[in-house]
C-alpha cells in the first residue's frame, strides 16, 4: 500500500505498559463490569459473549475486542464463556486512537495473538517485567495493525491526522455504506476536485475509493450476518446491492464463501469449541 510505511511508523511509535492479565470464566447469564481507566483487550476462547460499551456487539470463539482509551464496558455471557483478558496502560497520550476495536476471526488470521496472551499470563505469574512490557506492546501493535489492515477503522485516525478532506469522505462512507457512492460524490464531501480526491484518497488509504466502499460494505455485512436478525436479501438492500445474488457474488469474492455458508460456519464454530479449562478472574475485575 502507498501509505504502508506511514502506518508502520505510527504503530511502532505506540508503546504500552502491562497492567494485569488473567483467564476469565463466566457462566451463561453472568456478566462483569470492566471499569474505565485501563485499556482492556478481551479474547474469546470459547462460547458466545455480548459486549456492551460504545455500542453492543456479540463475539464468538476466536474474536477479540479492545478498548484502547479505557472506556467502561460490560461483558455478558450468552453461553458459558472462557476469555483471556489483558489490561494495558498507554505510554503516552491517546490522541487518534479509537475508543473500540472489534476483530472477528482474529485467532484464525493471526495465530500469534494467543501466543502473546500466553506470554503475558506467564510473565504475570513470574513477575517478569521485561517480558510483560515487550509482549504488551506487541499485542497492542498487532491489534491496531489488524484493525488498519482490515480497513474497518470507523474514523480512520491516520487519515484524520493527515488529510481532513479524505477523512470526511471516509466518515460519510461508514455512516451510509449502502449509498451508491461515486468518486464524484465523495470528492464533493471532501471539498476537492474529483482528480485530486482520487489521488489523495489512494495515498491515504492505499486503495481506490470504490474498493474501500466495498470493503466497508463487506465488513458491515459480516456484522449483520452474525447478528442474525436479517436475511441476505434484507442485508443486500441495506448495503446498496441491487439483488441478493449481486450481494452474494461480492461477498464471495471478498471472503471466499457465500454469505449463507459464512453465517452457518460461524454457528458451527461457536458450538463446537473445546471444553473450558479452569478459569480464574482477571486481576482487575
UniProtKB/TrEMBL annotation:
GO terms for molecular function: DNA-binding transcription factor activity; sequence-specific DNA binding. Residues 167-265 form the HTH araC/xylS-type domain. Gene3D superfamilies: Homeodomain-like. SUPFAM superfamilies: Homeodomain-like, RmlC-like cupins. It comes from the Bacteria. Residues 262-285 are annotated as: Disordered. PROSITE patterns: HTH_ARAC_FAMILY_2. Keywords: DNA-binding, Transcription, Transcription regulation. This is AraC family transcriptional regulator. The lineage of its organism: Bacteria, Bacillati, Actinomycetota, Actinomycetes, Streptosporangiales.
Amino acid at each position: 500500500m502507498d501509505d504502508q510505511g506511514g502506518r508502520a511508523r505510527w504503530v511502532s511509535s505506540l508503546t504500552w505498559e502491562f497492567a494485569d492479565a488473567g483467564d476469565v470464566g463466566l457462566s451463561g447469564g453472568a456478566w462483569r463490569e470492566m471499569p474505565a481507566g485501563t485499556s482492556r483487550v478481551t479474547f474469546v476462547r470459547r462460547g458466545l459473549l455480548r459486549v456492551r460499551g460504545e455500542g453492543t456487539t456479540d463475539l464468538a470463539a476466536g474474536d477479540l475486542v479492545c478498548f484502547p482509551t479505557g472506556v467502561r464496558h460490560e461483558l455478558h455471557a450468552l453461553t458459558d464463556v472462557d476469555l483471556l483478558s489483558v489490561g494495558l496502560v498507554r505510554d503516552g497520550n491517546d490522541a487518534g486512537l479509537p475508543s473500540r476495536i472489534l476483530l472477528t476471526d482474529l485467532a484464525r488470521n493471526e495465530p500469534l495473538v494467543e501466543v502473546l496472551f500466553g506470554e503475558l499470563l506467564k510473565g504475570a505469574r513470574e513477575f517478569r517485567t521485561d517480558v510483560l512490557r515487550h509482549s504488551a506492546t506487541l499485542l497492542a501493535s498487532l491489534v491496531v495493525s489488524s484493525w488498519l489492515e482490515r480497513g474497518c477503522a470507523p474514523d480512520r485516525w491516520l487519515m484524520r491526522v493527515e488529510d481532513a478532506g479524505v477523512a470526511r469522505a471516509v466518515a460519510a462512507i461508514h455512516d451510509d455504506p449502502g449509498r451508491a457512492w461515486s468518486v464524484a460524490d465523495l470528492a464533493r464531501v471532501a471539498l476537492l476536485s474529483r482528480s485530486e480526491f482520487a489521488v489523495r484518497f489512494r495515498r491515504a488509504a492505499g486503495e481506490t475509493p470504490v474498493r474501500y466502499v466495498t470493503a466497508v460494505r463487506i465488513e458491515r455485512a459480516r456484522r449483520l450476518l452474525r447478528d442474525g436478525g436479517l436475511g441476505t436479501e434484507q442485508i443486500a438492500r441495506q448495503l446498496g446491492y441491487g439483488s441478493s445474488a449481486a450481494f452474494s457474488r461480492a461477498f464471495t469474492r471478498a471472503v471466499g464463501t457465500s454469505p449463507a455458508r459464512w453465517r452457518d460456519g460461524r454457528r458451527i464454530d461457536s458450538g463446537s469449541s473445546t471444553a473450558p479449562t479452569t478459569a480464574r478472574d482477571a486481576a482487575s475485575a
